[in-house]
């Protein structure tokens, strides 16, 4: 009879990871520029309200408005269709979500 030779067990994926991957995540301090309340222009205030808010909150409020009024393009969700309140901010009938932050930042001071 032939004797079967045993193979060494295969190494698990976690055994081959670099030691750097096992370090605990370091908590970062929040950036003060994002937390600073900014005053919206009159056109932007019509959409999100006139109270000063940080950039992150302004972006959240605009997305809430877009979703509430169903302004995302049905065929391409990356495009946002402007309604009467958004036309003064966008300056055109449709923008991409990547243009949104730049266009909104022009209306914050």
From TrEMBL:
Residues 1-24 are annotated as: Disordered. Pfam families: SWIB (PF02201). CDD domains: SWIB-MDM2_like (cd10567). InterPro entries: SWIB_domain, SWIB_MDM2_dom_sf, SWIB_MDM2_domain. Residues 33-109 form the DM2 domain. PROSITE patterns: SWIB_MDM2 (PS51925). PANTHER family: SWI/SNF-RELATED MATRIX-ASSOCIATED ACTIN-DEPENDENT REGULATOR OF CHROMATIN SUBFAMILY D. This is SWIB/MDM2 domain-containing protein. It comes from Aquabacterium commune.
């Amino acid at each position: 009879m032939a004797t079967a030779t045993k193979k060494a067990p295969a190494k698990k994926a976690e055994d081959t990871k670099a030691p750097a991957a096992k370090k605990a995540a370091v908590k970062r301090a929040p950036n003060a520029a994002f937390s600073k309340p900014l005053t919206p222009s009159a056109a932007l205030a019509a959409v999100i309200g006139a109270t000063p808010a940080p950039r992150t909150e302004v972006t959240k409020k605009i997305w809430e408005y877009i979703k509430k009024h169903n302004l995302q393009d049905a065929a391409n969700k990356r495009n946002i269709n402007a309604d009467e309140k958004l036309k003064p901010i966008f300056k055109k009938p449709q923008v991409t979500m990547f243009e949104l932050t730049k266009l909104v930042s022009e209306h914050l001071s």
